[in-house]
Specification:
With 368 residues, this protein is an alpha/beta fold. It has helices at residues 19-30, 48-51, 72-87, 98-108, 118-125, 130-144, 152-174, 192-206, 225-234, 265-275, 293-303, 322-332, 354-366; strands at residues 12-16, 35-42, 55-61, 181-185, 211-215, 238-239, 253-257, 281-288, 308-314, 336-340, 349-351. The longest helix is centred in the middle third of the chain and has 23 residues, at 152-174. Bound molecules: guanosine-5'-triphosphate and magnesium ion.
């Protein structure tokens, strides 16, 4: 079992001959909404290992009851009112977190009294890079026309809308028709193959969609033996060479794993040559969110020589700074498609919606 895995309460363990059988047993015992925490092959011990096939172990638990979704902008209103109260010396029933006080005071401070509307200044305080502020101000003015929002909350709602629109424009522009091969690219060791395994597991195991895997070599050999083992367990064929002649049914998802390459123009150019035979593809740049923002921006810049369609952030179990995701997405002009955290399959692999990401960003800052 991977070292980071911590089983939750009420976790059940099923061992079966095939992934399909294991899933059926999980669903019988936990219900159709069972949350799959981990899927892995298990081998018999000792000599028996020589003749017995690997079996499949699945850890699953019941879904968490839906928590009351907090309206983060409402939360912000409350905090602003509290701040106003605090600034006027009125009694504030609940003390504001110091970072929020600092943030709001900075927004109102003379040194920040630039042209940018207060909502943009709040985002700058939340970690947005100044280079994105200008675009936001321009977009906000377009959205606003002649009217002015009445308060900071309305402004925040508007800036959220602007960011979501922008994101959707990136997504529409990058979208490929049909069912293109999904390819993971990125620097060495950022978590490409792990993310790919999770994605395949979600699609084949949980959604029962047919899939096929390619573990291709690049300038370096692709040593990810665990991808082949995982494919075998999922009963997904794993190829080692790309062949156009291979007759893959149209509804089959195709996933391609390549070894990492350093973020240099020469290495990326060489990688482009390896991507060419795949035709139009869904090329996802995988980034480790625990890296410094400058490094992530540099990787996004260099890899953008490829026809990228989206970004996947891994290691979200080690870094939860959402401003990085916004800053890289806006700089690369690409949507973040998935966030992936941890080493269990398919645990912590979530598709990303810009609205939710914005609310989580505000809410994370609010909570300090
Ligand atoms: N904590 C944590 N570890 C991860 C995560 N994703 C991957 N890892 C670990 O990081 C290491 C590298 O992961 P891989 O998926 O092999 O990385 P890769 O990008 O495919 O590597 P190359 O193909 O060699 O470039 C492995 O030990 C993974 O278990 C994650 O989200 N969180
Ligand atoms: Mg790999």
């Amino acid at each position: 079992m991977p070292p980071f895995f911590v089983p939750r309460m009420n976790t059940i363990k099923i061992i079966a001959d095939t992934a399909q059988e294991a899933l059926e047993q999980v669903q019988t015992q936990v219900g159709p909404d069972a949350v799959i925490l981990n899927v892995r092959p298990v081998h018999a011990d000792g000599v028996k290992r020589l003749w017995s096939k690997a079996r499949v172990e699945v850890l699953a638990t019941a879904p968490e009851p839906p928590s009351a979704q907090e309206n983060v902008l409402q939360l912000l209103t409350t905090k602003v009112h509290q701040l106003e109260g605090a600034l006027q010396g009125a009694d504030s029933s609940e003390p504001l977190p110091p970072n929020i006080i600092q943030m709001m005071q900075n927004v109102g401070a003379p040194q920040a009294a630039s042209e940018a509307p207060a909502c943009v200044q709040v985002l700058l305080e939340m970690g947005l890079l100044p280079q994105h502020a200008e675009m936001l101000v321009g977009q906000l003015q377009k959205h606003l026309g002649g009217t002015r929002p009445r308060n900071l909350i309305e402004e925040m709602e508007l800036v959220r809308e602007v960011l979501v629109d922008q994101w959707q424009r990136f997504a529409t522009r990058a979208e490929q028709p049909g069912l293109p091969a999904r390819v993971m690219v990125g620097a060495p060791g950022v978590g490409k193959t792990t993310a790919l395994c999770k994605w395949v597991t979600q699609e084949t195991f949980l959604r029962q969609r047919p899939a096929r895997l390619w573990r291709l070599d690049g300038a370096q050999p692709n040593t990810a033996e665990f991808l082949s083992l995982h494919g075998e367990m999922m009963q997904v064929p794993v190829e080692r060479v790309w062949a156009d002649s291979l007759d893959v049914p149209e509804d089959t998802l195709r996933f391609v794993d390549l070894p990492g390459v350093p973020a240099t123009p020469t290495a990326v150019e060489e990688l482009a040559a390896h991507l060419k035979p795949l035709g139009p593809a869904d090329v996802q740049l995988v980034l480790n969110s625990a890296y410094e923002l400058d490094l992530l921006l540099e990787q996004a810049r260099v890899f953008s020589a490829l026809p990228l369609t989206g970004l996947i952030f891994t290691h979200t179990d080690e870094s939860d700074d959402l401003s990085k995701l916004w800053n890289v997405a806006l700089a690369a002009e690409l949507p973040v498609t998935f966030r992936s955290g941890g080493q269990t399959m398919p645990g912590g692999f979530q598709s990303v919606l810009p609205e939710t990401l914005f609310d989580q960003w505000v809410s994370a800052v609010m909570q300090g």
